[in-house]
Amino acid sequence: MNITPILDRLEQPFPTRADLKTLRGLYRAWRTHVPYENFDLQLGRDTPLDSEFLVDKFGIRRRGGTCFQMNGTLALLLRGVGFDVDIVESGVQREKRGEDVWGNHIALLVHVDGKRWLADVGIGDSFLEPLPLTEGTHRQGTLDYRLERLSDGVWRARHHAGGSVSSWDFRTVPRELSEFAENARHSTPVMHKVLVAQHHRDGHELALRSRVLTDTGPAGKTRRVLEDLADFTEALKGLAISVDDLGPDNVRLLWNKTAEQYQAWLDIEKRIGV
Fold first, then answer.
1. Predicted model pTM
2. Distance from first CA to last CA of the chain, Å, rounded?
3. Domain 194-272 grouped into CATH 3.60.150.10
């Protein structure tokens, strides 16, 4: 599989070594170049997980996606440069919602020099570098993440205090990406109910939920409601969304859908305490 289009998008040369420096560099480049977004689900499109489709979507068309495609494509990239990568089953908010959430997410465990590293670009505002799979608090900049071993083969990742989710659990048994094809099509209810996009740029975490755009940076958090189609289009560009790939008709369709979703998102915010 030709991974050059993905490396080109990340503005990275083909690595000469599959070492920790390379892993950190590719992971950070992904977080700062590729947005998390659920637009295909919003448009009623299929969300395949086969390699050819993923290279085309993320490398050629320069789109983003939800966790299954995001982490699936990152695994494809890392394996392509020589890393040993395990795709593992995960459950976002299992601590609060129980066993039924297993399989609503996947994560990656990357083997480097006899150690395992948690890589997860499928959480929209995830850490900027992989975390070593060791118990305890891991600080990146001003943010603290925590890993806890719950039992043999089951771990919990705790997000920083202002994260989009409080925690997600994951198993360490390797799985095949194809096993999650049906999960990717259906995803979680909120992914179908509300348009979602997230991107890290210049030290700022940008998030779009329906028509609500937030910018969290060193000086704090700002929030505004998008006013019209032109405002929406510019916001998508700021989130590194390829509006050219979407096309004007689909951008307009997505904008119109957010009119119905706006109150739904406000209700969700109130319920979860955002």
1. 0.94
2. 41
3. no
